[in-house]
């Protein structure tokens, strides 16, 4: 059986189009190595990044020690150890929180949440008055968040309040992600490494090409010979 588009075998046509598409998408090995390194650094895989540096000769844009520090801060935030995370941030960049008022507020609010989680209500109230209220006085845009967070204290069982999700681990993760993004911005790194999106784009283009070829297959000419 011979299958073809106007005399050209279908399999050969499909192979030719795929090869042509891949050739257009091809990038240099150096560029690909850079994408891989940026991905490893952005995700915090310090040891893998070091090994890749040795193997490929692709030097990271930042000191890999800063990657370790960034991951340490992430782990502290995920454990709810806000003061220790602040100390690490100050060691990494003494002006980081001074330049990022939003991050300073986020960490202060999270510290209050941790006190509420520990059922240290009296301490939480004193902390809010001393440390959180000044944000609202200086920057009115923080007032709503302060009021929302403080409302959790009004419930006998804070975890069952309408804002009980603030006491869940997912809240720590959100804070850790926001701080991580702020650190990357301060280091002028990509917030979202390009490598995963390029892979997704490649697969999307392949799927589109397959769909196009399948649509055209309705017009093929089939010649069948029996011997």
From TrEMBL:
Q: Where is the CTLH domain?
A: 66-123
Please give the Pfam families that the UniProt record associates with this protein. CTLH, LisH
Q: What are the start and end residues of every segment in region (Disordered)? A: 1-24
List all Basic residues biased stretches: 15-24
Name the UniProt record assigns to this protein: Glucose-induced degradation protein 8
């Amino acid at each position: 059986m011979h299958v073809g588009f106007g005399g050209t075998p279908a399999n050969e046509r499909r192979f030719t189009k795929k090869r042509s598409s891949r050739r257009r998408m091809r990038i240099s090995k150096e560029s690909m190595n850079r994408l891989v390194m940026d991905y490893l650094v952005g995700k915090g895989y310090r040891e893998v990044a070091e090994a890749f540096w040795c193997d490929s000769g692709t030097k990271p844009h930042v000191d890999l020690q800063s990657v370790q520090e960034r991951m340490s801060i992430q782990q502290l935030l995920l454990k709810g150890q806000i003061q220790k995370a602040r100390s690490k941030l100050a060691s990494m960049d003494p002006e980081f929180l001074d330049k990022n008022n939003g991050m300073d507020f986020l960490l202060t609010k999270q510290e209050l949440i941790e006190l509420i989680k520990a059922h240290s209500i009296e301490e939480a109230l004193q902390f809010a008055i001393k440390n959180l209220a000044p944000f609202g006085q200086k920057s009115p845009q923080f007032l709503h968040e302060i009021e929302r967070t403080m409302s959790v204290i009004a419930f006998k069982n804070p975890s069952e309040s309408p804002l009980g999700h603030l006491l869940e681990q997912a809240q720590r993760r959100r804070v850790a992600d926001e701080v991580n993004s702020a650190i990357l911005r301060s280091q002028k790194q990509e917030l979202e490494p390009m490598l995963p999106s390029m892979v997704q784009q490649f697969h999307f283009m392949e799927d589109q090409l397959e769909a196009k070829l399948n649509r055209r297959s309705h017009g093929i000419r089939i010649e069948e010979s029996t011997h």
